[in-house]
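Researcher: Go.
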Amino acid sequence: MREIIAKQPANAEALMHLGSLTLRTGRAAEAERLFDRMSVAAPTSPAAFNGRGIALAGLGRLDEACACFDQALSLNPRDADCWANRGLALTELVRFEEALTNFAKALECRPRFPAVHNNIGLALHRTGRFQQAVASFDKAIDADPDYAYAHFNQSLSLLALGDYERGWREYEWRWKSALAGVKPDFPAPIWRNDFPIHGRTILVHAEQGLGDSLQFCRYVPMLAAIANVVLVVPKPLTRLLSGMARIGTTETKFDAWIPMMSLPLAFGAAIPNATPYLHADPERTAVWRERLRPLHGRKIGLVWAGSPRTDDPGSRLLDRRRSIPLETYAPLASVTGISLISLQKGAPAAQAPPGMVLHDWTGELDDFADTAALIEALDLVISVDTSVAHLAGALGKPVWILNRNDQCWRWLNGRTDSPWYPSARLFRQPAMGDWASVIHEVTAALRTQT
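Model: Structure:
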């Protein structure tokens, strides 16, 4: 194909085929250039503008992508794929109602369109209409029973509704959808509480993020009561979780294995929510208590930002929605009788709003065992939805969790408390991006308690 284009730079068909290939292989910037050239060579081709729109969306240039889709639709208003692509871009722009209108247009052109029913479900999920989302995912699955993305996405809506029996079952589709990465190819069989494991060695593999591992390691003691557990977790968690089970590697000899996020399915829908199920080192905690003693009032730890995976555009967008600039926390400094302590790691830790006194010893925190000891010495943790929020909840410490409007499924629908963490209180944005209202509510709550 490249040879053809080298000889015929304006060959629209060759540009389209090569552009499509580069899109499928994840090279969005190169694809955008190819489709741009195609749009010049074939200015009346809807495919050129649709392809360029897809590439621009992949680069995060969503407004430009919508403009390209508009050009394509002006040339072919009955292009179901283009309406669907425009709807996806609008979903990422948090323009959900417009997105739903575009998806409806796509279904007018092609009524049996599983991907569009799936995307309608995603938009409804993002706006908290979980029952409607489940119904849309059902339509996608009805049209394509093996549609892994629809099964997995439906699991998140079911879990947000607290339907754990169905939700965890559908969550197993994560492997086929590739949304949870590649399923490990271990030599031992995977265990789902479907064969005896008493007295044998089972490996628990922490397949996802730090927060997920901190939340779902609560099931490990239940497994350890019937088997010899080897726990494989990210290095920042090994010291903290070493008191729960033997820490190993995937090279450790074992008879069976289970992904950590499959433990709820194996042990049933009930949530084991007795806390603390993780424990800080008492000697290290005593050191922190002594160091914090000179600070006046209640000692409150703050976390204002997550840690995005820079190689994943979806993760970057999610992190923008869940993270808060530290300056947004500034009203907390007006509350008397409190001292603010940073628990923030990473690049956002460098933020320093003028007039806000924030004590910072995070340079001494090398892993989550260190962070746990500091949290144990505090009176309260206030955090956006990050691993530190899960750590505080697992320790049984009071934690106020600040949630984006399209909050994660685990915090359920319309709740200010959490069945996962009895010590948690949830504060949710009333509208997308409205952190000021959340901080106003948190500030008022602090004043009533000091």
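Model: The longest strand covers residues 298-303.
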